[in-house]
Amino acid sequence: MNGRIRWALAGVGDIAVKRVLPAIKSDPRATLAAVVSRNPDKGLAHAPRVFATVEEALAWGEFDALYVATPVALHAPQSIAALRAGKHVLCEKPVALNHAEALSMAAAADDCRRLLGVAYYRRLYPAVLRARELIRAGAIGTPVLAELRLHTWFDPADGFRSWLVDPSLSGGGPLFDVGSHRIDLLNFWFGTPARAVGLASRTIHKRTVGDSATVLAEYEAGVRGVVDVRWHSRVDRDECRIVGAEGSIEMTPLNSGRLVSPLGEETLPPHANLHFPALANFAAAVLDGAPLMCPVREAAWTDWVTARVTGLV
């Protein structure tokens, strides 16, 4: 392969337009070859070629990697089709509607010998990487507890991003949407979860999907993680705290880059485009063989945790 990665993008929704497309266009090692969109005019505003389906794009085939930015229900079929066509895939989170689907995607990547990454971009936050470094160096002693909360108000009465409240498309409310990011951070810091339980509920918004969820996960070393996510709070919270036997790490708000530990306070802000480091890392993995920061088999453990809460194994 040459020194550039040719991307096709499936889905031209909010996140794709705000972050994924700008990330591809600003990466000197990337080229946008095509988009997949049901709206040709919308697609042509971003790429020289537009296809109505992933299958049509794959039949054309003049690209190296597919970014899957469609609703969660389409992640598995579209990713597997691309892998079988010889393409690498970077997929939005969560991996799939359930753990079994996530494992089928991982198996397809193995069989096809192609890379399948998941866009859990918070793994590449400098503060998140610094926290992992501090934990491994023993700066807080033995870690025993991590607490992450994301509270906000989301009720798409105007139709904007309304697919997120359709369980057949999204999987299930804030647990799948914003909760998956935070469960993935627990896995990134502490490894494979050994046990997980939780509750999802419809407290304020009486929709089919829940508007809140609380997860408790335990890891092999004994550390426990709590993730609490809510779409019914008029008070925004984005909190993260890791407690050890000899100190703690505070990263609140999580997106701010502020980190306080026994070694003092540091400011380590994320990239201005939160998706850019994830796409750049994926390109480096494809072109240079660099380690992939979020391979599908690691990301699938988040689906394993959510399955324990929802019963959707």
Written overview of the protein:
Strands 3-2-1-4-5-6 form a six-stranded parallel beta sheet, with helices on both faces. Strands 8-9-10-7-11-12 form a six-stranded mixed beta sheet. It has a two-stranded antiparallel sheet with strand order 13-14. Helix 4 links the parallel strand 4 and strand 5. Helix 5 runs antiparallel to helix 11 and helix 9 crosses helix 11. The chain is globular. The model has no long low-confidence stretch (mean pLDDT 95). The protein folds into two domains: 117 residues, NAD(P)-binding Rossmann-like Domain (Rossmann fold); 144 residues, Dihydrodipicolinate Reductase, domain 2 (2-Layer Sandwich). The chain is of the alpha/beta class and 313 residues long. It contains eleven helices and 14 strands.
Q: What key attributes describe this structure?
A:
313 residues; alpha/beta; Rossmann fold; Dihydrodipicolinate Reductase, domain 2; 6-stranded parallel beta sheet; 11 helices; 14 strands; globular
